[in-house]
Amino acid sequence: MNTDRSVKVKDIVDKFQMEVIFEGKDYETETLTITDVNRPGLQFIGFFDYFDPRRLQIIGKSETTFLKSFSSGERRKCFEDIFRHEIPALVISRNLDVFPECLEMAKKYGRTLLRTGHTSVEFTSMTIDYLNHELAPVITRHGVLMDVYGEGVLILGDSGIGKSETAIELIKRGHRLVADDAVEIKRIGGTLFGTAPELIRNYLEVRGVGVIDVQKLFGMGAVQDSTQIDLVIQFEKWADDKYYDRLGLDERFTSIMDVRVPMSVIPVSAGRNLAGIVELAVMNNRQKKHGCNSAHDFVNQIDSYVDCHTPQD
Q1: pLDDT tens, residue by residue, 158-204
Q2: Most exposed of 8, 108, 141, 242 (fewest Cβ within 10 Å)?
Q3: Which SS3 state, helix, strand or coil, does residue 141 take?
Q4: 3-state class of 293 per DSSP?
Q5: Residues 93-108: pLDDT tens digits?
Q6: Which residues are catalytically annotated?
């Protein structure tokens, strides 16, 4: 699992089209490694306990109004106290005017000074959401990821068992390919999201045919950049001596990055319509999420019938 991830400050600048008022000495290489940001109101009154200098610092209308009540010398000290820490950058929201003391101290300590037209709340929300996605831990699994009826399905199994062929059939039925062969999985909070590595995005390999570009063959509606992973389906070769649950009472789960995900094991043999079975598994899983379990309902119905027709002593 790759947890050593970072985002360059200049990538944030490009992403949100920010104005660079002053480039710090490490502007080209400065990175963010945590998802939190900070509004340094407490720091302006000298409280630096628990202050984390790795966070992006943001000041808005309330901080600016507060600082206007200070003398020039007091403001200079406020900004010096902030900039003497190795912060990645200070962002001024709402395109507010920059205090001369702020620019002076940014230059003195070589810290990056930025400005955005968004409000502090808007910019904070967008930045945290972006950093949560970009800094999330990532693992790569061998498999196929599809969007089927709006549900993300990760299909796993040995090479050559029919994952890609099943994907082709699902695409022809109107579902969407997210990734083939290599699936990059991120955990954001308690939810898993999957996508394809950029190099192989929209490509699918079918033995005997080769690599195809799904987007060009089937159109834009046949592919999707990413999806939440709602169900894992494991393909395995049919074994005559193995017991398979015929009612579906055995609910299985697998753990990916410590997140519990429903799992179905589908035995593969000649003549089985795997695409249709995957569709059924997805619909059944979605019903279970809404509190409807067909297997349990069937067993309860049988039990009720037996109770009603059993002679009483």
Answers
A1: 988 999 999 999 999 999 999 999 999 999 989 999 999 999 999 99
A2: 242
A3: strand
A4: coil
A5: 999 999 999 999 999 9
A6: 142, 163, 181, 246
